[in-house]
Write a structure and sequence with these properties.
This protein is α/β, with parallel strands linked by helices. The protein has 6 helices and 13 strands. Helices cover 26% and strands 23% of the residues.
Length: 221
């Protein structure tokens, strides 16, 4: 799968790239809701002058490629839950999964992409969110399955398998405490305990930063 960056201009109408700094803590999964559109079409729609919606996303993926449309350290309008400091719009990287063409291949690409992003950040599948989790919208709709969300559970398990070699249910969890206070769980893989860096760092009062271009995580206190 090709991964490329094609950022929409800051001047894009309807404030779709608001230039609000973001330190993401989760990744939110969406479906595009368009059965005839490829990733390139979705990227073009963001700057189409007939588009009057104040809505945007970070990454869109199809059966051939993934396109990063807004830098991952900036907010996008995708969660439908406003602009509060703890909203999905202000804290979560959004990934749109295209519904056109070979959807199984697109889903394979999305699984690999999400697993790679989680691994780069030292995160587990507990950092994954649905659009539904932020605003109650039935999205990603192709994972809804009449309210059972079996597609969502399967997607998370596939990401966990890609990430750790085990599905989510079989990953050995590690409870993590900082000064006696429980924080987010880590996991055990091949004899090593992986601890969520942001959760642990912030519990110590440190500022945690991720440089996606240089792939550097830093803690400053």
């Amino acid at each position: 799968m090709i991964y490329r960056k094609d950022y929409i201009p800051i001047t894009t109408p309807c404030n779709r790239r608001p230039e609000l700094a973001m330190h993401p803590t989760t990744i939110t999964i969406h479906n595009t809701g368009n059965t005839a559109s490829k990733a390139a079409n979705e990227r073009s729609w963001l700057t189409n002058l007939t588009n009057t919606r104040t809505a945007s996303f970070h990454i869109v993926v199809d059966e051939y490629e993934a396109i990063e449309c807004i830098p991952l350290n900036e907010s996008a309008w995708h969660a439908g839950d406003g602009s509060g400091p703890n909203s999905g719009n202000r804290t979560s990287i959004s990934i749109e999964i295209c519904e056109s063409g070979d959807y199984d291949k697109t889903l394979d690409n999305a699984v690999k992409l999400v697993a790679k992003m989680l691994k780069e950040r030292g995160w587990g599948v507990d950092r994954l969110r649905r659009h539904y989790d932020w605003s109650g919208k039935i999205c990603p709709r192709k994972m809804y399955d009449g309210g059972k969300w079996t597609g969502w559970t399967e997607f998370k398990n596939r990401v966990a398998t890609e990430l750790t070699g085990k599905d989510e249910e079989n990953v050995e969890k590690a409870k993590v405490y900082v000064n006696g206070e429980k924080i987010e769980d880590g996991f055990v893989l091949e004899g090593r305990v992986y601890v969520p860096l942001r959760a642990a760092g912030e519990a110590f009062g440190a500022k945690v930063n991720w440089d996606n271009d240089k792939k550097i995580a830093s803690l400053t206190k």
